[in-house]
């Protein structure tokens, strides 16, 4: 076990290193990329949590404590946030005290002093959405890496494609309370994003391809399926061999298997306030659903994936294991070359 002070320093160094590895000038047809090689050769460990920023209320602090415990056991490389980072309306600017009250002062465990890769949720968009991307926010807390509205984390073992899903929602777009700077016109923004994502998935040589967005594609919780993502995003995931789609928005934990493709849908939106007893139907297969608070861990090697869902007390609720052979990886690469 690494002593506390060196762990803290290592986390700060890791966050700085991640920024230094950010490719400086992606072309107009590319998503921003950041290189984050795993600390341990041949293995990558992360946590995923969403819908959390409530100044410690609604058990946010308890979830954070258990994240720290699991993060220490797994020696995690980084954390993925699935959005709705600051309630109720994001932050007003980079000096807004809500940022520290919801993030810095809550996720204090040594194991969590590591880069957090962030997507925006709809509640972040009702505040100053650009403030969460501003480099000045990283002067407040260097862990907070909302590097672009959509971007890619390349880890060698897995490529994580963080996708900005809020603009897909027509009901949001027609509301004046959302901050659509650098998004409008919507149709062009979505068309370019989907093309860039498709291109990046084709180019990816990572054994595991994992797409992260705030809103669910397939869900059995309160919000249910997202029509726009079912129509526009899901076909790309299925065509390009994506292994998992990880989301928040629904304040629950769930694992859903696609009935017509290998894609697995994972919801980790239990970072604070939960919606007990609120369910919807989906045509996909619900493997696990929990209408309470918690988070998810993911441990990956080139050929194995092990996912665990935890509740607010750190109890294991559900596990998912997947394997792939070297031959399968080679076949996927050959198919992409043909495309």
From TrEMBL:
InterPro entries the UniProt entry points to:
Acid_PPase, Calcineurin-like_PHP, Metallo-depent_PP-like, Metallophosphoesterase_PAP
Its catalytic activity? Answer: a phosphate monoester + H2O = an alcohol + phosphate
Cofactor binding description? Binds 2 iron ions per subunit.
Q: Which residues bind Fe cation 1?
A: 51, 84, 87, 251
**CDD domains with a match to the protein in the record:** MPP_ACP5
Q: What keyword terms does UniProt attach to this protein?
A: Glycoprotein, Hydrolase, Iron, Metal-binding, Secreted, Signal, Zinc
Matching Gene3D superfamilies: 3.60.21.10
EC numbers listed for it are 3.1.3.2
Q: Residue ranges of the Calcineurin-like phosphoesterase domain?
A: 46-252
Keyword Hydrolase present in the record's keywords: the answer is yes
Task: Please tell me one Gene Ontology term that the record gives under cellular component.
Answer: extracellular region
Signal peptide feature range = 1-29
Report the locations given in the UniProt record: Secreted
The UniProt family comment states: Belongs to the metallophosphoesterase superfamily. Purple acid phosphatase family.
Q: What is this protein called?
A: Purple acid phosphatase
Q: Which GO terms describe its molecular function?
A: acid phosphatase activity; ferric iron binding; ferrous iron binding
Highest taxon of source: Eukaryota
Q: Which species expresses this protein natively?
A: Sorghum bicolor (Sorghum)
Primary localisation category? secreted
């Amino acid at each position: 076990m690494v002593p506390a002070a060196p762990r803290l320093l290592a986390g700060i160094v890791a966050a700085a290193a991640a920024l230094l590895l950010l490719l400086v000038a992606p072309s107009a047809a590319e998503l921003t990329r950041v290189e984050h090689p795993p600390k341990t050769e041949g293995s990558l460990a992360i946590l995923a949590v969403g819908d959390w920023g409530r100044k410690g209320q609604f058990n946010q602090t308890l979830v954070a404590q258990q994240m720290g415990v699991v993060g220490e056991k797994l020696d995690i490389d980084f954390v993925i946030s699935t959005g709705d980072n600051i309630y109720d309306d994001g932050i007003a600017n980079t000096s807004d005290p809500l940022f520290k009250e919801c993030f810095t002062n809550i996720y204090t465990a040594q194991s969590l002093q590591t880069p957090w890769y962030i997507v925006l949720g709809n509640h972040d968009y009702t505040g100053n959405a650009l403030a969460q991307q501003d480099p000045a926010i990283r002067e407040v807390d260097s862990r907070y890496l909302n590097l672009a509205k959509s971007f890619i984390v390349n880890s060698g073992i897995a490529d994580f494609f963080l996708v900005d899903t809020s603009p897909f929602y027509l009901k949001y777009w027609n509301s004046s309370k959302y901050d659509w700077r650098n998004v409008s016109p919507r149709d062009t923004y979505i068309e370019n994003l989907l093309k860039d994502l498709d291109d990046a998935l084709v180019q990816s040589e990572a054994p595991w391809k994992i797409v992260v967005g705030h809103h669910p594609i397939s869900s059995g919780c309160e919000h249910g399926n997202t029509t726009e993502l079912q129509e526009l995003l899901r076909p790309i995931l299925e065509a390009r061999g994506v292994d998992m789609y990880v989301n928040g928005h629904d304040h629950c934990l769930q694992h859903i298997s696609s009935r017509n493709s290998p894609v697995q849908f994972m919801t980790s939106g239990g970072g604070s306030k939960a919606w007990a007893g609120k369910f919807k139907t989906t045509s996909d297969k619900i493997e696990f659903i929990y209408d309470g608070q918690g988070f998810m861990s993911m441990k990956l090697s080139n050929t194995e994936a092990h996912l665990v869902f935890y509740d607010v007390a750190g109890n294991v609720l559900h596990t998912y294991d997947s394997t792939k052979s070297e031959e399968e990886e080679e076949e996927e690469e050959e198919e992409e070359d043909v495309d």
